[in-house]
Design a protein that fits this description.
Neuraminidase; 2 domains; four-stranded antiparallel beta sheet; 1 helix
């Protein structure tokens, strides 16, 4: 008989994504946070410690289409396939701190803040053009809509057709992001971060409203869907949160998803940069190939006839353990261990079953003093493909006194 026992701690899900920036990490890594479209299941490490050397570094922009989740790392652009295989990969390496990111069905676009250009490449990483648009002053966010590429720079917003024609460096002369950066285009409107507010204007320059959503902090990213506008709201000297309002500007909530929902950010310089919304409420599962499930030490208690087995799990989630002829109990630990890459050490207690289910194990213990068993463990996190491991274990005979 196979007895299955489980341990559970938290969950993660995703339809809204944001970049995570940590200002005090000596060796920064690309990290993406996420939440369900209704704001539930929020986590700041949906994709953490991404194993993509050409696109590592603190994240400064995310984008998503119906196939890919893309991020701008400190050294390049990375991508994960939402439809599988889900292994993260670098598509544009060797960049200098790209910031601001958008995608359409064929290309990715990004701002080269320090070079004064807008870059473009195909989503497979080919045809890289780091200066698709040049002569730009500190571009900090980009958006694509209706056959045009838009970008934001301090004090103005520019636009160009996707074939490179009709370049307009100042679509709205004298207007543009100040105090942070964020840009989104939907329908006939363009939205951007202004002085403590989110501004909106028609694409023809009319209906300008510099206080479309008033009283916000620095805006570090804007995204929209058919019903809502989302933004990263960064108050002065505080951690950023995800804000949300109806698309007409009503019902604004600056802390719709509060700062650092899962306790992941590690310093007062940590923050959120860039936001993207997925049209699907439940994106496909993703892999965690760089953070496998591992067995640790086994400790025998011959007086009690039990074995304590350490299992290192890569995140908060669900651990299922099975072993023929044994009963088990999982004790979940909620303290990440930095030296183990943030893994959690969960303890599994194993003991032979009574009656028919444990007969084979008890017979081996009686005849040989040792029983060999096979322990299987599977770890799952919501929206993540499970990882498994197997270990052969020897159970020692209990000492009776």
């Amino acid at each position: 008989m196979l007895i299955l026992c489980t341990g559970v701690a938290g969950n993660a899900a995703a339809a809204l994504y944001w970049g995570v920036f940590d200002g005090k990490i000596n060796a920064p890594v690309a990290t993406v946070g996420a939440a369900n479209l209704d704001g539930s299941g929020a986590t700041s490490n949906y994709l953490a410690d991404l194993p993509t050397p050409g696109s590592t570094g603190t994240t400064c922009g995310v984008a998503v289409n119906d196939a890919y989740l893309v991020w701008a790392g400190e050294r390049g652009i990375g991508r994960v396939n939402l439809d599988g295989p889900a292994a993260p990969t670098t598509i544009v390496p060797n960049l200098l701190r790209p910031c601001g990111l958008t995608v359409d069905q064929t290309h990715v676009y990004w701002g080269n803040y320090y070079n004064g250009t807008i870059g473009r490449a195909r989503l497979d990483g080919s045809e890289v053009n780091p200066a698709f648009v040049s002569g730009v002053s500190r571009p900090c966010d980009v958006a694509v809509a209706g056959g045009y590429l838009y970008w934001a720079e301090p004090g103005r917003i520019g636009r160009v057709r996707l074939d490179g024609s009709e370049l307009d460096q100042s679509l709205f002369p004298g207007y543009g992001p100040f105090g942070g950066c964020g840009l989104a285009v939907r329908g006939q409107y363009v939205y951007w971060g202004a002085h403590g507010s989110i501004a909106r204007a028609s694409l023809d320059g009319s209906e300008l409203d510099q206080s479309f959503i008033p009283t916000v902090g620095d805006v570090e990213g804007i995204s929209t869907d058919s019903a809502h506008l989302y933004w990263i709201d960064h108050p002065s000297r505080a951690l950023a949160s995800v804000g949300r309002a109806a698309l007409d500007g009503s019902e604004p909530n600056r802390t719709w998803i509060p700062s650092d929902p899962a306790g992941f950010l590690r310093s007062d310089q940590s923050n959120l940069l860039g936001i993207a919304v997925d049209a699907r409420p439940s994106p496909p599962p993703l892999l965690l190939p760089e953070r496998p499930l591992r067995f640790g030490k086994a400790k025998h208690d011959v007086k009690a006839g039990t074995v304590r087995l350490d299992v290192w799990v890569p995140d908060w989630g669900k651990l299922a353990v099975s072993a023929p002829g044994l009963r088990c109990k999982v004790i979940a630990d909620s303290v990440p261990h930095p030296k183990r890459g943030g893994a959690l050490r969960w303890r599994v207690y194993l003991k032979p079953l009574e009656g028919l289910p444990g007969r084979r194990v008890r017979a081996q213990l009686k005849n040989k003093g040792i029983a060999e068993v096979r322990v299987s463990a599977t770890f799952t996190v919501a929206r993540t493909n499970p990882v498994s491991a197997v270990r052969k274990l020897k159970i020692r005979k209990q000492i009776r006194r």
